[in-house]
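Why do we care about 3D structure at all? Because function follows from shape, and shape follows, mostly, from sequence. That is the central idea of this module. The next example makes it concrete: a single protein chain, its amino acid sequence, and then its structure expressed as tokens.
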Amino acid sequence: MTMPAPRVAPLCADCVADSAGGLTFDVTARGASGVAHLVLRRRDADEEIGLPLTPVADGRLRAALPSTVALPEGRWDAYARVTGSEPQRLAPGATDLSSLAARIPSASRGHVAVRIPYATRQGNLTVRSWLRAPHAEVGELRVSSAALTVQGRVYGTDFAPNAYAELRGRHRPDPARRTEVSVDRTKFGFSVAYARLEPGVWDLWLRPGGEAGPRVRIARLLDDVADKKPVFTYPRARVQTPDGPVEAGPYYTRDNDLSVSVSPVGS
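And the structure:
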């Protein structure tokens, strides 16, 4: 009778984020020998980054991903690799992301870099990375019976006198809808009247430099929540439009960008 092979426990990595946006990984790997690396592989792309794992106390190996090391936007699956062995997928251990909630990115860099480790549905460790230049961060959202009011802050650029916000139909050929923006230094605010929008999904953009400047996707990135969509939910309002009654409300996409969904009543 053949006995089943003993089940090997997955390697776990504890993650700590610092206020600058860097990450430290501590891998429990007692008895490991040889040169070891923590490998981040960008999902759906032929790209990986290797970080040396060096011994620390209690049989752990540590790797650091400083904020100064560029990590292109995407989802990066985490592995441990020892010379001569196949990379082994890492599972998440203890995670300390408390510094991310109070983080204020430096305005001198001209971009915002965000890295949030999280557990996938399969129980593996992945790092979600954003790299935005410039970036428009959502602050407060106020939802009324007829409109959405957005307040936020811009990083990496200045406002021009002709700045405005833009609502773009995701699957519509129509021209984008412009909305006036109030500005106070790096802060901005604007309102979206639901009655102006036909049914569909409308993505929200900021045009801080006016028509000739960059188009900046409005998003909420500067906290410790990797996937906002199931966590931040908002009430939907019923509004009468020229096309009939609709229900409308904001939501965060899979990439934590801000959009508005408009659906005909009864659909």
